[in-house]
Design brief:
Order of helices and strands: HHEHEEEEHEHEEEEHEEEEHEEHEHEEEH
Helix content: 25-40%
Largest sheet: 9 strands, mixed
Distance between the termini: 24 Å
Structural class: alpha+beta
Mean pLDDT: 92
Shape: elongated
Length: 404
Amino acid sequence: MTGPGAGPRVDELERRYLNCTFAELCRIESPSGRERACAERVIAELRALEAETYEDGAAAATGSDCGNLLARIPGGRAGGPGEGGRRSLLLCAHLDTVPLLAPVEPELVDGFWENANEGVLGADNKAAVAVMLAVARHVHSRGAPVDLELLFTIGEETALAGARAFDATQLRSGFGYVFDHASPIGEVVVDSPTHFRIEVELRGAAAHAGIRPEQGRSAILAAARAISAMELGRLDERTTVNVGTIAGGTAMNVVPERCSFVAEVRAMDDERAEEVVAAVVQRVHEAANRPECECDVDVGVQRMFAGFHLTPSRPAVRAAEGALRACGYEPVRISSGGASDANELLVQGVEVVNLANGTERNHEPGERVSVAALEGMLDVALALLDAAAEEHAAAAGAEPGAAR
């Protein structure tokens, strides 16, 4: 199956392998920090394909039970660009999922893979993991016009921890892709925001709420004043602010001595993000200093990931759009309010584009992906091999057809 009007690159055996592998991977629980079992399954598959496979030391840095995996499979076709040499394409997916809430039992319902239980399916990002293994199997048996690098990261759902701990200087690929955006195949993420985490702790004074309330200083009141003074939600089409968690107090009859909350700021523009963070912090200090509050305050600000903007002329964007068209999908450039491993790899100097994977309702109990989308993702990934070869050939000054 593929996009409308295009001939499929995926045969029946590859479709069957892809769907079976996807269902098997989903059954393996791998919430962030507990990716080992899923990693071992991936390693076994890669070794069966005689792929060079390495595990890095990111476990220690991230608190996971395993590290990132990097595998290489030679394309094997003659005529690669460059004098007797080859070029390489990177594909990347993450092994971890958000907390599952219920055991995963994949089932097919009207052409969609879903979890039979009330929890996430894990299609984010095991759909992409299964696709990458299917691509590896295809390249091993049939060859490709470029070599293939496969990066399986840990801790993506915990602020890109695995990609941040990965040493991208190991990579040989000029550019690459992640399939980690839950939207229709054809969408190409060219904008992603800078993201800040803001942790606030307020300390007042405890007192009996019915006998000596005037001797207390309520940290919850200070937090309420601060949050109510903030601009929250979508500030403009490129900026959002949210207060996600709040905790405080000890008992109903005690003026609360402590209260803490966590907020986030996302903005497509770095300067705008820093400006909004400063405004949030200012509201906190103003509230803490109000006469009815008089609380001490600690504020911690952490940049979780950097945003990016990719122009249409970038080789990875051109190759992605060419591959999508070859498979019958019309490319659509989009901005995303979220992040992926692409954000961190771009910071490290690797040109990586995040492509939509056709999954739906990620991070929700109703998460699902259609068989058509799963197979379409594989079709696009295989087309990327040819499109990457074209880009490499053009960069080397050769005629585009020479890479085939």
